[in-house]
Design a protein that fits this description.
The chain has 260 residues and is α/β, with parallel strands linked by helices. It has two domains: 6-188, 3-Layer(aba) Sandwich (Rossmann fold); 199-259, Orthogonal Bundle (Helicase, Ruva Protein, domain 3), CATH 1.10.8.100. Helix content is 35%, strand content 19%. The chain has helices spanning 16-23, 42-49, 62-72, 107-116, 134-140, 151-159, 199-208, 217-224, 228-234, 247-259, and strands at 12-13, 32-36, 54-58, 77-79, 96-101, 125-133, 160-168, 173-174, 181-188. The strands form two sheets. Strands 4-3-2-5-6-9-7 form a seven-stranded mixed sheet. It has a two-stranded antiparallel sheet with strand order 1-8. Helix 1 packs across helix 2 (42-49). The relative contact order is 0.12.
Length: 260
C-alpha cells in the first residue's frame, strides 16, 4: 500500500463512481489532456480508456513518478516537477483539457497563478475540471453579500465561467481527508475586463478585504484619495462593506485605478 505524503497534500481518489463521473463531464477522445497530481494513476486510467490524443501528467513526487512509469509506460508523458514552477503556457501547442485533484494546501495558489498568467487573447486550456476542499470551492462560487465572498471569488470569476458539479465525501479518498471536497468545472469567458496588469486587481481586492468587516471608506481613500468622480461614476456607497460590492464593481474599480 502506498503511503500518502502530508507534505504534498496527497489524498488519492479511489471511488470508481466519482472517477467515472469526472471523465464523463467532457469529450476526451482525440483531445489533448493535462492531469495535475495523478498520484497513483486512478483517474489517469479512466482518462486513457477514453482514448485521448495525448495525456500529459505533472507529478512532483519522484516515487509516484516511478510508479506511473511502470504502470503506463509510453501511454502518458510524465513531467516530474512542481506545478507552481511550470510555465503552463508552454506545456503544449494544443489547448488542453485539465483535470486536477489539487493538493488542498496549494489549490488556491495554483488557480490564482493560472488566472494571472492567462493571455488576454487566447487561453492555453479548453476547460478546467478541478477538485477543491469544499470550503474553498464555496468561496470560489460565492455571491456578493455572502460571508464567503471575497478576493478569491473576484479573481476566479474574472475570466472564467464556473459551475459546481458535486460534493465528494471523504470516503472517496485514501487516506480520508477530514473535510468534504467539491468538483468545479471552469470554462473561459469570451468577454472579460482587460487590465494593464492583473496584479492591480489583486491589489484592489487585497486592500478592500484587508478589514472585511469595516466600511469601505478607508480602503477607497487609500487607493483613490477620496476621488468623488470615481464614487459618482460607479455609484458607490462608502458605508458599505467589502462583501457588499459586486464582482463587476471591483473590475471597474481596477479600471479606474489604472487610469490614475
Amino acid at each position: 500500500m502506498i503511503k500518502a505524503k502530508k507534505s504534498l497534500g496527497q489524498n488519492f481518489l479511489i471511488d470508481k463512481n466519482v472517477l467515472e463521473k469526472i471523465v464523463s463531464l467532457i469529450k476526451i477522445e482525440n483531445k489533448s489532456i493535462l492531469e495535475v497530481g495523478p498520484g497513483t494513476g486512478n483517474l489517469t486510467s479512466y482518462i486513457l480508456k477514453n482514448n485521448p490524443k495525448k495525456l500529459l501528467v505533472v507529478e512532483k513526487d519522484k516515487y509516484l513518478v516511478s510508479l506511473l512509469k511502470k504502470k503506463f509506460e509510453t501511454k502518458i508523458v510524465i513531467i516530474n516537477d512542481d506545478i507552481l514552477k511550470i510555465d503552463e503556457n508552454k506545456l503544449d501547442k494544443d489547448k488542453l483539457i485539465v483535470f486536477g485533484n489539487l493538493p488542498y494546501n496549494i489549490s488556491t495558489e495554483i488557480l490564482a497563478k493560472w488566472i494571472n498568467n492567462l493571455d488576454n487573447k487566447s487561453f492555453w486550456f479548453d476547460s478546467l475540471i478541478l477538485m477543491f476542499q469544499k470550503e474553498v470551492a464555496n468561496r470560489i462560487i460565492s455571491k456578493f453579500n455572502s460571508s464567503k465572498y471575497g478576493r478569491l471569488t473576484i479573481l476566479a470569476n474574472w475570466k472564467l465561467e464556473i459551475d459546481k458539479i458535486c460534493d465528494i465525501k471523504p470516503g472517496s479518498f485514501s487516506p480520508k481527508p477530514r473535510v468534504e471536497s467539491s468538483l468545479l468545472f471552469f470554462k473561459p469567458k469570451k468577454i472579460f475586463y482587460q487590465f494593464k496588469n492583473s496584479k492591480n486587481l489583486e491589489k484592489i481586492t487585497r486592500i478592500f478585504f484587508n478589514q472585511r468587516r469595516k466600511k469601505i471608506k478607508t480602503p477607497f481613500n487609500i487607493l483613490f484619495k477620496g476621488n468623488v468622480n470615481v464614487l459618482n461614476k460607479l455609484n458607490i456607497d462608502l458605508n458599505l462593506r467589502p462583501h457588499n460590492l459586486s464582482q463587476d464593481i471591483y473590475y471597474k474599480l481596477t479600471e479606474e485605478y489604472e487610469k490614475l
